[in-house]
Design brief:
10 helices; LysR family transcriptional regulator; D-Maltodextrin-Binding Protein, domain 2; 303 residues; LysR_subst-bd; 24% strand; 3 domains; 15 strands
Length: 303
């Protein structure tokens, strides 16, 4: 039995909570995964996994063994990177998740540069606005806008994104162009609802040296960034969004910036990854590349 391979299989079963999912993730026959776990449990003399009809979960011994396996496998990867040519040429699969707007407009268009630098890294990119369970879903790194609330993850700041207050020309023709904070009383907004927490977001401005949240009557409520922009373009009200995401609409004239003299809070953009992945060379080079990308003029992340 290859014990390191068995550990790798075991950790994926714990993370994905199933033998079949782990086998598919590792591109192994399902029968081989079952045999490896039986051999591993026999070798250790303990039961590592509890199997039910719905999912697989670790026993108390299995949970303790999982933590040790994660650290050992991470240490092994780092050691191999130090004493092999892979330090100069990192290789393997890197799974990354990010908001659809960041992916479509900034990261993916620039990826040819990354793949040219690191041709032996195979990227798997997920684009969505929902929260991702990095451990359970086998994701190495995520990009997220806003505050990083999960203290179990390592956060690497990438940028502070400027935000704008926006409206469509058809909306402004109907409701007029607001020129002051007081004018907002005659307007409505598109409400953004977090798909993760259900929190509802209004508009926020700096007035008199203090941040004030304004909850205007809502023309529509949505739970995705693409829907947020679509609703604004359709004339349902004002929105606030990162500058990078509005560059094309501003250039095309489908959206217009309003109240430019009223400051809007910047939005933090961070790369997040589990603590045991911070030694991974693949994660390191990708996050370093993201830092470089976010500092590049013309991305729209900084004005």
């Amino acid at each position: 039995m290859d014990r390191f391979n068995a550990m790798r299989v075991f950790t994926r079963i714990v993370e994905l909570r199933g033998f079949a999912k782990a086998a598919d993730s590792l591109q192994l026959p399902r029968a081989s995964v079952t045999v490896l776990i039986k051999q591993l449990e026999a070798h250790l003399g303990v039961q590592l996994l509890q199997r039910t009809t719905r999912q697989v979960s670790p026993t108390l011994d299995g949970a303790a063994y999982y933590q040790r396996c994660v650290q050992l496998l991470s240490d092994l990867e780092e050691t191999e990177a130090v004493f092999s040519t892979s330090r100069q040429s990192p290789r393997g699969t890197l799974s990354v998740d990010m908001p659809s707007g960041i992916g479509r407009l900034i990261v993916i268009p620039a990826l040819p540069d990354f793949t040219a630098r690191y041709p032996q890294i195979e990227l798997e990119i997920g684009l969505n606005d929902r929260p991702v369970d990095l451990i359970r879903e086998g994701v190495d790194c995520v990009l997220r806008g806003g505050l990083a609330l999960d203290e179990s993850l390592v956060a690497r700041p990438l940028a502070m994104m400027d935000q704008l207050t926006l409206a469509s020309p058809c909306y402004l023709q109907r409701r007029g162009v607001p020129t002051s904070f007081e004018d907002l009383a005659n307007h409505q907004m598109v409400e953004y609802v977090s798909s993760a927490s259900g929190k509802r977001f209004g508009l926020e401005f700096e007035v008199g040296g203090e941040w004030q949240t304004v909850n205007l009557p809502k023309g529509l409520a949505v739970n995705s960034s693409d829907g947020y922009f679509a609703a604004c373009e359709a004339g349902f009200g004002l929105i606030q969004a990162p500058h990078y995401h509005a560059m094309r609409q501003l250039a095309a004239g489908t959206l217009v910036e309003v109240l430019p003299r009223l400051a809007v809070p910047k939005m933090a953009l961070s790369a997040l990854y589990p603590p045991h992945r911070q030694l991974s060379l693949r994660v390191r080079v990708f996050v370093d590349w993201l830092v470089e990308l976010c500092a590049t003029p013309g991305t729209g992340l900084r004005r």
